[in-house]
């Protein structure tokens, strides 16, 4: 008979969650917790928290939706604030928990937390169980020997397709069903457990996070007010509401409802319309949508309507995400190094003084660079948390090559602003544009004037996001 504590991380769903399913199967009694880590509230070079206001709002909505789903199964979700590696062992020991379960993470900072947590739990005799929840193909099933992961996406994709990677993707699981009684936590006297700190108020059983958590900080408010456009398009922001149920609704509508998937190849570089992109990335990033679930539903669509380049390119983009995540697992901290995996300097090495560099960063954040296309994309990002893939490539190129801003600072800025921030995809793409990883040609410098003419020939996007 095992009391299990399940720690939700970036796997904020109850469907198609292998780590959660294993925990439920092992438990005689089980309860669920989410820990808000104060390290994510530290500022980046943009002067705003790593966990920016758009992601905080999206996270709050997601946790509310998750709590509702758990309540339908007779459970609750406890939210606390503090360092997981310190708080979780104390909660487990105080409540005679035998097994702590969670989803494994890919980034070294999160992996370090896992290692410290394991050491603390070993001291008190609490077992650990974890599983991957973010991959199409689990690391152990990759058809590449250790140390030989392809350095280019094309080689990675071609090999996976030749090896018929679909056979490594499990069949669709059954719905989440748990019949184990819930644990009721005793929290008094736990060192380091903060239920009221930095404007965060988390309470036991049924109370939502205080709304101040998702409100902009003073610095975020200043940043937004400087570039805010009252009549800007709002349809993407309305769709991007956090939660597993909202993710499922968007997935169904895009693939089977409106069937926007049938034109994805033609629209994927679009800038303005919510139907141009799947918009799945935000839900994939915090795990409220399973990448395998997306893949299976694309295959269901193809079984009825036939396969083609449109549906294939949705899977193509999922494989890009897969490529970066597997590289992050294998390379660890080297993934974030300024010299990248190629161990070379970017062609756009920064030669600016610190004051000059900060002035250029401030120009980007104030949407007052010399390029209207860059300004429009940055205004959309600051106001909504979203930017198209075409926009991200152009903004990254302009910041690195035209403004000489180090790519690592650009990646930090995007971490604070993106609603769909994912460490592997964000830092991987910035390193790719900078030419220090994944691109043997030495980086991608875009002609932003030509790109604006090619992808916004009527000027409708720039007009929609200019003041």
Keywords:
467 residues, alpha/beta, Serine Threonine Protein Phosphatase 5, Tetratricopeptide repeat, DNA Cyclobutane Dipyrimidine Photolyase, subunit A, domain 3, 19 helices, 7% strand
Short description:
This protein has 19 helices and 7 strands. It has 467 residues and is α/β, with parallel strands linked by helices. The strands form 2 sheets. The chain has a 5-stranded parallel beta sheet, with helices on both faces. Strands 6-7 form a two-stranded antiparallel ribbon.
Q: Uncertain spans, ≥5 residues at pLDDT below 50?
A: 191-211
What fraction of residues sit in β-strands? Answer: 5-15%
Rg, please? 22 Å
Rough outline:
globular
Q: Sheet bearing the most strands, described?
A: 5 strands, parallel
H/E element order: EHEHEHEHEHEEHHHHHHHHHHHHHH
Distance from first to last alpha carbon: 63 Å
CATH superfamily of the domain at 335-464: DNA Cyclobutane Dipyrimidine Photolyase, subunit A, domain 3
Helix content: 40-55%
Helical segment tally? 19
- Give a count of the beta strands, DSSP E runs of length 2 or more: 7
CATH topology of the domain at 335-464: DNA Cyclobutane Dipyrimidine Photolyase, subunit A, domain 3
Structural class: alpha/beta
Mean pLDDT: 91
Q: Strands across the major sheet, in which order?
A: 3-2-1-4-5
CATH class of the domain at 335-464: Mainly Alpha
In the CATH hierarchy, the architecture of the domain at 335-464 is Orthogonal Bundle
Structure description:
The structure is a single chain. By secondary structure, this protein is of the alpha/beta class. Among the domains are: 116 residues, Serine Threonine Protein Phosphatase 5, Tetratricopeptide repeat; 130 residues, DNA Cyclobutane Dipyrimidine Photolyase, subunit A, domain 3, CATH 1.10.579. The chain contains 19 helices and seven strands. A five-stranded parallel sheet has the order 3-2-1-4-5, with helices on both faces. The chain has a two-stranded antiparallel ribbon with strand order 6-7. Helix 4 links the parallel strand 4 and strand 5. Helix 11 runs antiparallel to helix 12, helix 12 crosses helix 17 and helix 14 packs across helix 15. It is globular, with a radius of gyration of 22 Å.
